[in-house]
Design the sequence.
C-alpha cells in the first residue's frame, strides 16, 4: 500500500470518530452553570405577537432558549456567552430552540474564549437547531472556541435525530470556531446561501492536531441522510490534520454550487465519503500556500472514497493551488463557449469552441454528435470552425468534447445562416450622379 492510499484510508477511518464527537447537546450542566433560561426573560426584549426583539446587547452564563412558536429579531444586538466563573465552565449551545422550530434574524452570537475540559457529551455551539426546523438570516456567530484541540466548538449546529427537519441559512457569517462553522447531522435538509464560513480559530495549540472541517454535512448513522443546497457561499479552511473546507460524510441529495473555497494550506477542499446523490458544480476550489508550521499531508482539491465515487458528480469546478486537484474522482471537460455567431452565405465563418479539463491530460477532441452544421462549415478536432456557409437556414447541432481520460461533455448550439443582397451600381449611373453636381 503506497503512502497516498494510507493517507486516504486514515482520513476515512477518522471520520466516524469526528462525527460521533458532534452529538446533540445533552442535558448535563457543567459545575456552576445555571439551567437554560428563555431569551425572553434573560435579556432585555420587547415582544410583539410571536416576535421577540432585543432592545440591547445581552450577556449570559447559561444556554438561552427561544420559546416554542416565537422568533427572535436581534435588531443588530449581540448575545455574548461567558464562563460562569473561574472554575465553572460554559457548556452546550449559547442559543437553541425550546420547541420544534426556531427563526433568528439580525443577531450576533459571541463566545469569549471558554475554559474547561473537552465535553463531547455536551458540546458548545453558538446556535443549535436541536431536532428543529427554522431559519437564520443576517446572523453572525463568532469565537465559539476554548482555544484547545477538542472535537467540539461549532458555530452553527443542526441535528435531526428524531425525524426530518429543514433549516434555511442566509447571509450568515461564522468565524473563530474551534471545530466547525456549520455542523449538520441526521435527517436534515439544510439550505445555505450567500454566507461566509471561516476562518476558524487558528490559535489552537499544536496546529494541525485538530481537524477543523469548516462545513460538515452528515453523521455516522443518518436516518435519511443529511442534504440540501449549499450555494453562493465563501468557505475558508485551515491547514493540517486532514482539515477540509467541506466534509460530506453519510450525506444524501446534496448540491454544492457556485461557492468559493479557500484557505492557507487547507488539507482538502471537498471530501466525500459514504454518501449518495452528491452534486458539486461551478465552484472555485482553491488554496494558498501551506504555512511553514503545518504539514501538507494530502493537498487534494476534491476527493472521494470508493463508496461515493459513482454517487458524486463534478461539473465545471475550477481548482488552484492543490497537490492534486482530484483524488478518486473525475470531472468531465467543461465547455465554456455558450453560443456561436450567426453567419452569412458566402462569408468566412471563423469561430472556436473552448473548454477546459481538470484531468491529467489537457488534450481535447471535439465532434458533432447530433444534428448538422450549416453546409460549408467544418468542425475540426481542436474545436475550430472554418469554412463559408452556402445555404440559408436555421441549424441546431450538438457538439461533444472528450479528454484523454474518457471524460465527455456536450452542448447544443443553434446557428442561423442568412443571405445578404448587396446592391451594385453601374459605372454610367455613378458618372451621371457626379456630373449633375455643380462645381464649388
Sequence:
Amino acid at each position: 500500500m503506497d503512502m497516498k492510499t494510507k493517507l486516504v484510508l486514515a482520513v476515512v477511518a477518522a471520520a466516524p470518530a469526528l462525527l460521533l464527537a458532534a452529538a446533540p447537546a445533552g442535558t448535563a450542566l457543567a459545575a456552576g452553570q445555571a439551567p437554560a433560561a428563555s431569551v425572553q426573560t434573560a435579556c432585555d426584549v420587547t415582544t410583539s405577537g410571536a416576535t421577540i426583539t432585543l432592545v440591547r446587547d445581552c450577556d449570559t452564563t447559561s444556554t438561552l432558549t427561544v420559546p416554542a412558536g416565537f422568533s427572535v429579531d436581534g435588531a443588530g444586538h449581540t448575545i455574548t456567552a461567558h464562563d460562569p466563573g473561574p472554575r465553572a465552565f460554559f457548556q452546550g449551545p449559547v442559543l437553541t430552540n425550546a420547541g420544534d422550530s426556531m427563526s433568528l434574524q439580525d443577531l450576533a452570537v459571541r463566545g469569549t474564549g471558554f475554559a474547561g475540559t473537552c465535553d463531547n457529551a455536551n458540546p458548545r455551539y453558538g446556535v443549535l437547531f436541536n431536532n428543529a426546523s427554522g431559519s437564520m438570516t443576517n446572523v453572525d456567530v463568532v469565537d465559539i472556541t476554548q482555544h484547545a484541540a477538542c472535537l467540539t466548538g461549532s458555530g452553527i449546529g443542526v441535528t435531526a435525530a428524531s425525524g426530518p427537519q429543514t433549516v434555511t441559512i442566509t447571509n450568515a457569517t461564522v468565524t473563530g470556531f474551534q471545530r466547525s462553522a456549520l455542523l449538520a447531522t441526521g435527517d436534515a435538509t439544510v439550505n445555505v446561501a450567500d454566507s461566509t464560513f471561516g476562518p476558524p480559530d487558528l490559535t489552537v495549540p499544536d496546529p494541525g492536531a485538530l481537524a477543523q472541517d469548516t462545513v460538515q454535512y452528515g453523521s455516522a448513522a443518518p436516518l435519511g441522510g443529511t442534504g440540501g443546497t449549499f450555494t453562493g457561499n465563501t468557505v475558508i479552511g485551515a491547514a493540517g490534520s486532514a482539515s477540509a473546507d467541506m466534509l460530506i460524510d453519510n450525506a444524501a441529495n446534496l448540491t454544492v454550487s457556485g461557492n468559493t473555497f479557500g484557505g492557507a494550506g487547507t488539507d482538502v477542499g471537498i471530501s466525500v465519503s459514504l454518501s449518495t446523490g452528491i452534486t458539486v458544480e461551478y465552484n472555485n476550489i482553491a488554496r494558498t500556500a501551506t504555512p511553514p508550521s503545518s504539514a501538507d499531508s494530502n493537498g487534494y482539491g476534491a476527493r472521494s472514497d470508493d463508496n461515493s465515487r459513482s454517487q458524486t458528480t463534478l461539473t465545471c469546478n475550477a481548482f488552484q493551488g492543490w497537490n492534486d486537484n482530484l483524488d478518486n474522482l473525475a470531472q468531465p471537460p467543461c465547455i465554456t463557449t455558450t453560443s456561436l455567431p450567426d453567419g452569412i452565405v458566402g462569408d468566412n465563418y471563423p469561430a472556436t469552441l473552448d473548454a477546459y479539463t481538470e484531468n491529467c491530460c489537457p488534450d481535447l477532441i471535439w465532434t458533432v454528435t447530433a444534428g448538422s452544421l450549416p453546409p460549408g462549415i467544418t468542425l475540426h478536432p481542436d474545436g475550430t470552425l472554418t469554412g463559408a456557409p452556402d445555404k440559408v437556414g436555421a441549424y441546431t447541432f450538438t457538439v461533444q468534447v472528450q479528454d484523454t481520460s474518457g471524460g465527455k461533455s456536450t452542448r447544443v448550439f443553434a446557428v442561423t445562416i442568412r443571405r445578404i443582397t448587396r446592391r451594385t451600381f453601374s459605372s454610367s449611373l455613378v458618372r451621371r450622379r457626379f456630373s449633375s453636381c455643380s462645381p464649388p
